[in-house]
Amino acid sequence: MSGTDGYELLDSGRGRKLERFGAVTLSRPCAQAVWEPALPREAWAAADASFDREDGNRWSGRSHLPPQWTISVDGTRFRLSSTDFGHLGIFPEQRAQWAWLRRTARKGDRVLNLFAYSGGSSLAPALAGASVTHLDASRGMVDWAAANARLNGISTIRWIVDDAHKFLRREARRGSRYDGIVLDPPSYGRGASGETYVFERDLTTTLSLCRAVLSDAPRFILLSAHTPGCTAQVLANVLLQATAGLGGSVESGEMLLEGGPGVLPLPSGMWARWTTARAQGDRA
């Protein structure tokens, strides 16, 4: 199945979310959805498949799903596939951030995307004409992101499989510099060589290393997170400290999954953005 457009949040409640990805409808867990669903049980029961984390990760109806399918979100195409962890290869709550990157990145900018997963935040600046370096510790996810790039006719992204801190330290030594940096650090991650990443322990180090590879005339840092207990103000605070003395300003907020009229927006993580006067002036 391919070529079917769209993402839509259909409903949420009682710890779950009902979503449409193209022609595929899925029910998956969502701890934030503490309210009551708006749609009747019949609508939820009609989902093509459901995923649960009780008694271990497991799908129901996974055999009804195509091995792969393609959707388009705001003109950008993504290859989807069900994974054993319940993910599909897209985080649509980043949709507003992708639109912001398309507006903010400029042709000739050098942009670094860390913890880059399947590449939505790499595709957006690349489509705006930026030169993008995409880094993730998982070879499989980098390959998936590269497939998404091919779907969109993009052949200019540099693909890196590495530990983020090791890469940043090498880039600093080499004098490599970036005009924009995007990062979505995991709550907990493990690299191919056994490296571990713990959000609360390592985030400030990551941002310090990011600052060391900013260009002399940087444009932005976009930081997002899905870590439980992390608020928009937490991200704003650490980003303010990381960019102290550089000028510019920081804004922050919630990432949301959204549907049509009457569908309650579903909080799904936080974001904070530091932008310089240069970037703000270009968007004006």
Care to describe what's here?
This protein has 284 residues and is an alpha/beta fold. The protein has two domains: 7-80, Golgi alpha-mannosidase II (Immunoglobulin-like, Sandwich); 92-283, Vaccinia Virus protein VP39 (Rossmann fold), CATH 3.40.50.150. It is 28% helix and 30% strand. It is built from eight helices and 16 strands. It has helices at residues 41-45, 95-104, 120-127, 139-151, 164-174, 199-212, 232-242, 277-283; strands at residues 7-13, 16-21, 24-29, 49-52, 58-60, 69-73, 76-80, 110-114, 131-136, 158-161, 180-183, 188-190, 196-198, 220-225, 249-257, 266-275. It has a seven-stranded mixed sheet with strand order 10-9-8-11-14-16-15, with helices on both faces. Strands 1-2-3-4-5 form a five-stranded mixed sheet, with no helix packed on it. The mean pLDDT is 94.
Describe the structure concisely.
With 284 residues, the chain is an alpha/beta fold.
Descriptive keywords:
2 domains; Immunoglobulin-like; five-stranded mixed beta sheet; alpha/beta; Rossmann fold; 284 residues
Give the SSE layout:
Blueprint: E1 7-13, E2 16-21, E3 24-29, H1 41-45, E4 49-52, E5 58-60, E6 69-73, E7 76-80, H2 95-104, E8 110-114, H3 120-127, E9 131-136, H4 139-151, E10 158-161, H5 164-174, E11 180-183, E12 188-190, E13 196-198, H6 199-212, E14 220-225, H7 232-242, E15 249-257, E16 266-275, H8 277-283
Parallel strand pairs: 3-4, 8-9, 8-11, 9-10, 11-14
Antiparallel strand pairs: 1-2, 2-3, 4-5, 6-7, 12-13, 14-16, 15-16
Extract low-pLDDT stretches.
none
Structural class designation: alpha/beta
Task: Please name the CATH topology of the largest domain.
Answer: Rossmann fold
Biggest beta sheet attributes: 7 strands, mixed
Helix percent reads 25-40%
How many strands in all? 16
CATH class category name of the largest domain: Alpha Beta
Name given to the CATH homologous superfamily of the largest domain: Vaccinia Virus protein VP39
Output the radius of gyration: 19 Å
